[in-house]
Task: inverse folding
């Protein structure tokens, strides 16, 4: 099998955490000195990259790690309320049945991820979880995954819902599927030129089947080195 491992982002890609994140972020705005956002502003923010979002918030870069730590801590209290993205469990079941290894790379905590998966009977689909990455450090973890499991870049594909997911995949030289049901808008994602852009989880299986076929076709057309005796 050419494509072996499918890696998912967690927040916004597997788990519908958008509204919970906004609610928590707004509740912490007074403490950390940034402006809360209303519904109209939320739509505008979906068109911004994570770096642009930070700039617009006017929050001190020094406070970012502390804000993120608090957000993840507060999210722990909401895990029981969170739902999977619609049709994602069925999609994961299909991919697992096809023999792929599935994993998660996320800046959320491992405890939050594991509890969520167990709450929805999804833990059986995943072979590994790399959690607690820095906001812009996912590419380092993807490279670590390639090294740890002795994988070639074309054997891994990354699925994410933010512009930073696309950039992390590119830095790691792996293909990326960007999904429009999460934190960033389809327009913002398209500007970063992901390898694939999809709007419904059901599209993922088709995309990966086609990608697998393309790799196999390329490999079958490579002429072996022959020797004349």
Result:
């Amino acid at each position: 099998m050419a494509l072996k491992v499918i890696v998912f982002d967690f927040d916004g890609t597997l788990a519908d955490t958008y509204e919970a994140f906004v609610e928590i972020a707004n509740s912490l705005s007074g403490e950390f000195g940034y402006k809360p956002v209303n519904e109209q502003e939320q739509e505008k923010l979906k068109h911004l990259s994570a770096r642009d979002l930070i700039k617009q918030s006017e929050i001190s870069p020094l406070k970012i790690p502390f804000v993120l730590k608090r957000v993840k801590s507060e999210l722990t209290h909401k895990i029981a309320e969170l739902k999977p993205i619609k049709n994602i469990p069925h999609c994961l079941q299909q991919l697992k049945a096809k023999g792929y290894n599935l994993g998660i790379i996320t800046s959320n905590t491992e405890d939050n991820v594991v509890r969520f998966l167990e709450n929805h009977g999804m833990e059986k689909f995943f072979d590994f979880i790399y959690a607690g990455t820095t906001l812009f450090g996912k590419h380092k973890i993807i490279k670590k995954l390639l090294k740890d499991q002795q994988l070639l870049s074309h054997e891994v594909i990354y699925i994410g819902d933010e512009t930073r997911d696309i950039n992390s995949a590119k830095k790691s030289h792996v293909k990326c599927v960007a999904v429009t049901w999460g934190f960033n808008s389809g327009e913002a994602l398209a500007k970063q030129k992901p390898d694939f852009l999809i709007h419904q989880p059901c599209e993922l299986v088709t995309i990966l089947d086609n990608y697998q076929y393309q790799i196999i076709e390329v490999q079958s057309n490579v002429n072996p080195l022959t020797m004349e005796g």
